[in-house]
Amino acid sequence: MPANPNAAYGQYPSGSGGNTSKNIWGILALIGGIVGILGAFVFGGGALFGIAAVIFGFVGLSAVKKGLASNKGLNITGIILGIVSVVISIIVIVATIMFGAFIFKAADEAASSSASPGTSQGAGQDPSPGSDGGEAAPAQASEVEIGDDVTAAINVRPGTASSSASGAESTNGEIAVVTMTVKNNSSSDVEMTLTNLAATDGGSKEYDEVFDGSNYKGSLAFTDPVPAGGETTYELAYAVPSAEIDGMHLKLELIDDLGKGKDFEFYKQ
Fold it and tell me: Are 263 and 119 in contact (CB under 8 A)?
């Protein structure tokens, strides 16, 4: 019998290998994800590579479903790395902005502090020498308003307490003599009774008042009022070592508000 004329001569079975023409998308996704992770820590610069990795990965997965690519694992890995790099980039960008704002605020506060140092009302300036020839310490070179038409000027000089004085034992007799002159330009007397003038080191240490008969009476020195249109000078002393006089602060506390507040501070700038 003649052979079947319709039979295909030399026919072979088809192969089983898949199409890999679109595997390039998976490779690009993986590369983009790796670069995105590395760049994410540099001011969030890996975000663009991460987004590209996600896009390439999904394109690659689509190609795998269509049988045009066989590297499904690379595409999934690229997508995961891309998402992680985007998240890290966002965190780094937010952290960088917050840190920059903190640094800017700190620098601005430091500049403001150095330009306008914090001082209380009546901050002192270098005065002229004291009446006994000693160089005066924290005192007010010009008058400070402590009330409406009422001013005060303070002068401080080093001194030595007499043997009969009390309160200067801790400093072996070294004292700071404080003279405060209050001028009253108002039409009524100003009562200074119960006024307090305390001396400190600018912190928590308060110096003891020195009492020496009629010379230094502590806060009792303020028993005399300041007459209208006149002035009154009060003199007090504190147990302050001569080496610490330049750093002492004087805090004046009025019992009544004379129009400018009750608390004032004097010190050498």
Answer: no
